Amino acid sequence: MNLTSAPQVRKLLADHGLRPKKRLGQNFLIDRNVLERIVAASGAREGVNVLEIGPGLGVLTKELADTGARVVCVEADKALIPILEDTLVGSAVEIINQDFLKVNLSEFIGKRGGGKWTVVGNLPYYITSPIITMLLDSKEIISSIVLMVQREVARRLQAAPGTDDYGSLSVFVQYHCEIESVMKVSKNVFYPVPDVDSEVVKLTMREKPAVAVCDEALFFRIVRAAFGKRRKTLLNALGSSAELGWDKEKAHLILAQAEIDENRRGETLSLDEFAALGTSAFQN
Q1: Of 14, 153, 227, 239, which residue is the least packed, with the fewest Cβ within 10 Å?
Q2: Within 13 Å and on the Cβ side, how many CA atoms surround 165?
Q3: Tens digit of each residue's pLDDT (9 = 90 or more) over 34-55
Q4: How far is C-alpha 267 from the geometric centre of its chain's CA atoms?
């Protein structure tokens, strides 16, 4: 069966009495060139462990398995499991029916012998941030992440300070990872056709974070507070954050010690400047 053919995908779903579920963001990739680029970016080959999130009908899963990599896929939609078992017959793939966000990742990987894993996935918009957060919280067991995300999300991940797309997710991901755009993907290579275009991005875990911080949890509380009231000055945003619990006097002191103008906005700060704020806060 050719899973890069929209008519065949449509027939396969119909044969199982199914239709793509919009609430689960089911848009199936039907372009061989994009598949090959994702597989190449993942570095899948014999001896590599690959964890795929949301395999759908298994079109990418089979390509990954054909490289000789060990592939485990986690699919939330129970109705797709019989299809996966058919399309992946003969492939050495472990199929798990579970909501990935409910997986205890360390335990899950530990049961499969541990080691470093490459993660691959085509993520619906509404779960992109929680899944990236979950993966980076387990970065010690992950070597790289190759994701198909909406173009808007890809811009946020790669955004520079001072741009509209720059936010707490940008800082979080850039702190932990090096980010590479693999390719831009037209919405017309999916069935059904979604409303927006996508982009494949590769996140490679840094050996050490992009900037040195004294207290990582405090660093990210400051980042969230700075972007929580994005249009406010840093003095007002940090001095009124319930998460930080600072008053304006303390915010003024910390900003002054970090040599950062209190009238700037959080969206203008680089990672180095956020780190300086974190150090100042740690010392006060």
Answers
A1: 14
A2: 11
A3: 999 999 999 999 999 999 999 9
A4: 21
